[in-house]
Amino acid sequence: MLRLALSGALDRHPRLKLLIGHMGEGLPAMMERVERVFSRYSGAYLDRSAARAILDQVWVSTSGFASAPAFLATLLTFGADRILFSVDYPFGDNEAAVDFLTTLPLSSADRQKIAHANADALLRLAPAAVAT
Amino acid sequence: MADAGNGRVSRDQSAGFVRYWRGQGGGDGRRRNLRAGSFRSGARSGVGRRRRRRGDGARLQRPSGASDCGRAGALRRLRPPADDQSRGGGRRIGAGRARPWAQRRVDQRRDRRKFLDQPAFEPVLARAERLGAPLYIHPGVPPESVRAAYYDGLPGEASFLLSIAAGAGTPKLRSMCCAWRCRAHWTATLV
Would the CA dihedral through A43, A45, A46, A47 be positive or negative? Predict the structure, then answer.
């Protein structure tokens, strides 16, 4: 992901949407450092800082993570509009993932976004297709 | 969403999923089905069928189980010619009984030595952007050189597991160093 940002690939394709799994692959916790280390390049050969480009173009799926610290880092970094619930079959426990989603201390609106609304918009799904 | 597939998870895990995934026996030999995305393609959840019924981009909505069609096939066909020429000349990984998919796995390893930001993949990014289709990016098994430098020397399966699941412990390494493979978005795991 950082390569895509630092190489200018995201600047060349500013409407490209990327989806990464595993609660952001560690990026949420590293984003501040990414901004600090690489912000010098924005304006030089990048239109945006690497962190800005990632926040503009990347969505994150939970991929079976049932970890409050990891989720909070993702929520605080990417926001509730960019998180998609998913399981991590066959590596993760699907029921634990569902339990985690349903017990998160979120507003109903944000839970709906993460559960399906963000996926509806990003993947252009019909609402009926996920209302199971 | 009540069962959420946990029956299959526990069955795979009890069969020794690591061996199953690596193709060293164990499991029920369904790895090709897994890779083809039978669970993820939407064929079971009905997502693909519903999308097809809507007639919205219908020719792109075939189940990903059909390996070389639809959007994923279009992306694969955009791969640089060098990759096609490499097919059939790769080195077998591991030893033991014949595994039809082993050769393909070698080719995929060659692909993984490239990065998605390299010029050869510009058409892939451009097409995905034009389609408005998100690319789902997932880390794969690192090339031999990366594995040797970063992960070798641990007991048991630890080296292998760390190399494919290092995100938890070494996010920087995983984000910065490991090669990425991409899939069309509709093979993503969504419930």
Answer: positive
Per-domain boundaries in chain A: 2-130
Q: How far is B96 from chain A (nearest CA, A)?
A: 25
**A106 touching B, CB under 8 A?**
no
pTM of the predicted structure, to 2 decimals: 0.62
Q: B11 and B149 in contact (C-beta within 8 Å)?
A: no
Domain ranges of chain B: 67-187
Residue B7: predicted pLDDT: 63
Q: Quick check: B131 and B61 in contact, CB under 8 A?
A: no
Q: How far is A88 from chain B (nearest CA, A)?
A: 7
Count of CB atoms situated within 10 Å of the CB of A65: 25
Helices A94-103 and B6-14 cross at an angle (nearest 10°) of 140
Residue by residue, what is the 3-state secondary structure of chain B? Answer: CCCCCHHHHHHHHHCCHHHHHHCCCCCCCCHHHHHHCCCCCCCCCCHHHHHHHHCCCHHHCCCCCCCCCHHHHHHHHCCCHHHHHHCCCCCCCCCCCCCCCHHHHHHHHHHCCCCCCCHHHHHHHHHHHHHCCCEEEEECCCCHHHHHHHCCCCCCCHHHHHHHCHHHCCHHHHHHCCCEEEEEHHHCCCC
Cα B41 from Cα B113, distance rounded (Å)? 26
What's the CATH fold of domain A2-130?
A: TIM Barrel (3.20.20)
Which positions in chain A touch B136 (Cβ < 8 Å)?
Answer: 18-21
Query: Which residues have C-beta within 8 Å of that of residue B120, sequence separation ≥ 6?
Result: B79, B80, B114
Higher-pLDDT residue of B160, A8? A8
Query: What was the ipTM of the complex prediction?
Result: 0.88
Q: Both tokens of residue B164? A: 């494919």
